[in-house]
């Protein structure tokens, strides 16, 4: 009988689910890392929320562990890379608390509009300062959503019910999806200029970190009110404090902070700040939902091998997983490449198969490709829910199997259409290793390292030497240098595997070289 440890407080319903499905379960909360390390070797599964830290040391001691299940979305407390290397599946419950988090954002907005917390404290103190707390109506105001995915779209729906105008900045929100949910899609500067209220619902990525800084706060409509129930690092807290003190920002309602638990913070004590201790998912309904979901998912995996909502494994049967593994790796890497090359809202994705791969079950391969494509761009995407996320955003996804003689034993091609362009990438397997064979109309042979420099340029002399010189001066070693050009010899591509990261200044230098059209640093 499989054995699961529940190390954080979960609804009692989770224990009952495990028992009903033939899984032995222990409930031991409040364990230190050392205490967890001492006992984790006894368990096949570990069910957690946000308190337990699943570190490399814990995983090294977890000799029997097969699955970690997170009751919730974020897995910041799980070392997913270490779990993968130990053969441990990491699952989450990506949609169990979406409504609850959206409702918290709406609640925070309304409390901010009417100064509810400060007015309540004043009244409790017997002051009756009726004239001090002059609020604003939200009806007729413009709500700017930074991020309009699963949670953001629910916030939009609720705000429209309150008669607000909703605009959204989300580079990966298609025009069709925006129209379907009655949201006006705008650029970030336009949103900042127009919004009376701004609510953040975007994941933490390199492009969103410190998004609301001094520069962008200065672009906002004077007197704007800001709500953040997403990630603390999206706002530069010192810049927000200065903007409030100057009167540029009227106030902010924050459920998340740069450092948590937030025992001290430069914003604490300001009358214009409403603060809650990361309560976005804290309702009875949400906790019940995620507890039941994680127990069902873990029990199904431990008893019959079904993988659901896994962050580091495809949703396939145990029998198929071994055979599909190299193809899944190829699909995921091609998708990730395409995703990092996409610069606008996705509208269409075509995944094509030729040769030997057409004899396999390509459904998980397409899911892996979509996961690779969407995961860097959207929060909570995995191999199971990637097709659902694409559908919800009105992204037209099609799978094509070609019954024809292929130039390669196996060929997979991903073509994405997005606002402003089209990108296509083709790949094959060399043994069990993924390999690129074409980028659009440019033929080239290239393996995919962990860090690749992509350069698109006019096919004229001098590029190789210039790029090599710049990388050499920066003491960045070149592991592989791959070149290709189109038939007309007008357009060329270089894919350079580098041993070290290329910073923004060096990327700018390469971009400014003669005949260079585009430069990207791609991570895999």
What do these coordinates show?
The chain is an alpha/beta fold and 524 residues long. It folds into 4 domains: 1-96 and 281-308, 3-Layer(aba) Sandwich (Rossmann fold), CATH 3.40.50.720; 98-275, NAD(P)-binding Rossmann-like Domain (Rossmann fold, 3-Layer(aba) Sandwich), CATH 3.40.50.720; 314-438, 60s Ribosomal Protein L30, Chain: A (2-Layer Sandwich); 441-524, ACT domain (Alpha-Beta Plaits, 2-Layer Sandwich), CATH 3.30.70.260. Helices cover 34% and strands 25% of the residues. The protein contains 17 helices and 22 strands. It has helices spanning 12-20, 33-39, 56-61, 80-85, 98-114, 116-124, 150-161, 175-180, 188-194, 214-219, 237-246, 284-304, 318-341, 363-374, 386-392, 463-473, 504-511, and strands spanning 3-6, 24-27, 45-48, 67-70, 89-91, 142-146, 165-169, 184-185, 197-200, 224-228, 249-254, 273-275, 346-355, 396-402, 410-418, 421-430, 433-439, 442-447, 451-458, 478-485, 491-498, 516-523. The strands form 4 sheets. A 7-stranded parallel β-sheet has the order 8-7-6-9-10-11-12, sandwiched between helices. It has a 6-stranded mixed β-sheet with strand order 14-13-15-16-17-18. A 5-stranded parallel β-sheet has the order 2-1-3-4-5. Strand 4 (67-70), helix 4 and strand 5 form a beta-alpha-beta unit. Helix 5 crosses helix 7. It starts with a strand and ends with a strand. The relative contact order is 0.09.
């Amino acid at each position: 009988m499989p054995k699961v440890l529940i190390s954080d407080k979960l609804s009692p319903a989770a224990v009952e689910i495990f028992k009903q499905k033939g899984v032995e379960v222990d409930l031991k909360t409040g364990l230190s890392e050392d205490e967890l390390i001492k006992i984790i070797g006894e368990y096949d599964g570990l069910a957690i929320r946000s308190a337990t830290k699943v570190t490399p040391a814990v995983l090294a001691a977890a000799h029997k562990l097969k699955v970690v299940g997170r009751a919730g979305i974020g897995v910041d407390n799980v070392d997913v890379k270490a779990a993968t290397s130990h053969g441990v599946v990491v699952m989450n419950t990506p949609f169990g608390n979406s409504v609850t988090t959206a409702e918290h954002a709406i609640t925070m907005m309304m409390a901010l509009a009417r100064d509810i917390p400060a007015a309540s404290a004043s009244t409790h103190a017997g002051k009756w300062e009726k004239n001090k707390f002059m609020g604003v109506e939200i009806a007729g105001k413009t709500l700017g959503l930074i991020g309009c995915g699963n949670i953001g779209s629910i916030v939009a729906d609720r705000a429209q019910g309150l008669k607000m105008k909703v605009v959204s900045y989300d580079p990966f929100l298609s025009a069709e999806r925006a129209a379907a949910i009655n949201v006006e899609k705008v650029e970030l500067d336009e949103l900042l200029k127009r919004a009376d209220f701004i609510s953040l619902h975007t994941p933490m990525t390199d492009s969103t970190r410190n998004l609301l800084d001094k520069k962008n706060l200065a672009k906002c409509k004077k007197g704007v009110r800001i709500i953040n129930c997403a990630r603390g690092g999206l706002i530069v807290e010192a810049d927000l404090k200065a903007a409030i003190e100057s009167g540029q920002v009227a106030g902010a309602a924050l459920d998340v902070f740069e450092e948590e638990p937030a025992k001290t913070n430069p914003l604490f004590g300001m009358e214009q700040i409403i603060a809650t201790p990361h309560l976005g998912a804290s309702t009875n309904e949400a906790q019940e939902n995620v507890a039941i979901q994680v127990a069902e998912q873990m029990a199904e995996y431990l008893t019959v091998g079904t993988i659901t909502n896994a962050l580091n494994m495809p949703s396939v049967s145990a029998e198929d997983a071994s055979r599909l593994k190299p193809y899944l790796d190829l699909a995921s890497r091609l998708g990730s490449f395409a995703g990092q090359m996409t610069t606008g809202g996705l509208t269409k994705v075509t995944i094509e198969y030729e040769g030997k791969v057409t004899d396999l079950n390509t459904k998980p391969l397409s899911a892996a490709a979509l996961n690779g494509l969407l995961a860097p761009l959207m929060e909570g995407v995995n191999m199971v829910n990637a097709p659902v996320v694409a559908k919800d955003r009105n992204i037209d996804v099609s799978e094509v199997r070609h019954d024809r003689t292929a130039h390669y034993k196996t060929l997979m091609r991903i073509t994405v259409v997005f606002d402003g362009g089209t990108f296509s990438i083709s790949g094959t397997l060399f043994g069990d290793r993924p390999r690129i064979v074409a980028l659009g109309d440019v033929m080239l042979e290239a393996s995919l390292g962990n860090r690749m420099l992509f350069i698109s340029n006019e096919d004229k002399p001098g590029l190789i030497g210039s790029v090599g010189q710049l990388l050499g001066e920066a003491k960045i070693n070149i592991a592989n240098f791959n070149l290709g050009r189109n038939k007309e010899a007008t357009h060329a591509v270089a894919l350079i595997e580098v041993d070290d990261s290329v910073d923004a200044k060096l990327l700018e230098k390469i971009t400014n070289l003669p005949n260079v059209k585009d430069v990207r640093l791609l991570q895999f």
